[in-house]
Design a protein that fits this description.
Blueprint: E1 3-10, E2 19-23, H1 26-44, H2 55-64, E3 67-74, E4 81-83, H3 85-110
Antiparallel strand pairs: 1-2, 1-3, 3-4
Helix pairs in contact: 1-3
Protein name: Enhancer of rudimentary homolog
Pfam family, one: ER
Family: Belongs to the E(R) family.
Length: 111
């Protein structure tokens, strides 16, 4: 369903570090959350050519943030609905499940 999502992140106590981004889909929003974590890992482990992590590590990263929330506006609606960290985690989990199913189908077709 088309929507507008504002992702708001405050990594620590410093108010000047607050950021936000706007997306047109939930998938794009959760992809950004994953990309932020991947970027952090790349800076932390620059010598590693490929970064691997599991969903628990991503969720731990999210839990370490001072705040991460989404404001979701469905198409045609005039208000934004606040969504908390747990909702974002559920969307990430659902997104990864859809991605895995697509990749598995592709592998099966190649076999």
């Amino acid at each position: 369903m088309p929507c507008t999502i504002l992702l708001l992140i405050q990594p620590d106590e410093r108010l000047e570090k607050r950021t936000y981004a706007r997306f047109q889909s939930i998938d794009d929003c959760v992809d950004r959350v994953c990309a932020i974590y991947e970027s952090l890992l790349e800076r932390k482990y620059p010598e590693m050519p490929v970064i691997h992590y599991d969903i628990a590590e991503l969720f731990d990263f999210m839990d370490e943030l001072k705040d991460i929330v989404c404001l979701v506006q469905q198409e045609g609606a005039s208000e934004y609905v606040p969504r908390n960290k747990q909702w974002i985690k559920e969307q990430i989990f659902a997104n990864m499940g859809r991605t895995f199913k697509k990749e598995r189908k592709s592998w099966e077709e190649e076999a």
